[in-house]
Structure of Copper-translocating P-type ATPase:
Amino acid sequence: ATPTSIMVSTGRAAELGVLFRKGESLQTLSGVTQFAFDKTGTLTEGRPRLTDIVTASGVDEDRALVLAAAVEQASEHPIARAIVTETLERGIAVPPSSHFAALPGLGAEAMVEGQSVMIGADRALAARGLDLTPFEAEARRLAAEGCTPVYLAVDGRAAAMLAVTDPIRPEAAAALAALRAQGVSLAMITGDNRVTAEAIARRLGIERVMAQVLPSGKLEAIRSLQQKGGPVAFVGDGINDAPALSAADVGIAVGTGTDVAIESADVVLLQGNPLGAARALAISRATLANIR
Ligand code: ADP
Ligand code: MG
């Protein structure tokens, strides 16, 4: 493509809310064969709500919620915000916590009123030897519906399972259909559990799901896609995924994301609209086809 055609195309893309930060990204994007998406905050709204609480026998539901919220008030994770919001909406005061520690991609823990409290993914609690079988059937049912189950442990005992749901963005299905129509293959990379991730991927027609990926593993997930199937564009909101944005051949940040995402990205989608990803690919291919 000539410098002029690149300038014209990046200008037209900008009018559609697609910012190419460098001209050469237009060229690289035209050769991409795979699109990988972060789930939370990219394909979904990133604002989950709490939908269910199942407590172990003898555990009071409000007490479980208070302990969970006390830990989560120190966390910035979207699941944490869902739990704190629900607790406050029930008019329950959240006590302070101490010794807070985030377990990236797994959960969080802290001391609350003299009790040791942990909340997180099944694998995080199972690694501490907690027995989650009382919640297994219900958790599986909720995950198959696309909810994310997390578990609460109090003083080394499994106390509750809490499920959150994060609505799929209204434009996500159309964005993925438009990409599929352009012949690229689609993948999802997420820290969420496999059953939930597959339920959401099925609704969106994404064939390849990489689930339970730790934040530190997202870069490697991109590398493995590149090795198997050629150049990759990764679309993410930057929470946990700045390294994946950099590792991809083209990193595409959704504009509602963090500043660090925008710095790591080659392309920025304003208004956080995933349809921009399909527009970006179409524009890049049209530009490269028009070499004069
Ligand atoms: P994503 O790829 O969706 O950004 P993360 O890597 O942030 O996922 O988290 C992966 C999983 O770890 C979550 O689905 C949840 O089970 C668990 N998790 C992480 N942080 C928390 C937290 N603060 N509270 C509860 N669960 C958490
Ligand atoms: Mg995300």
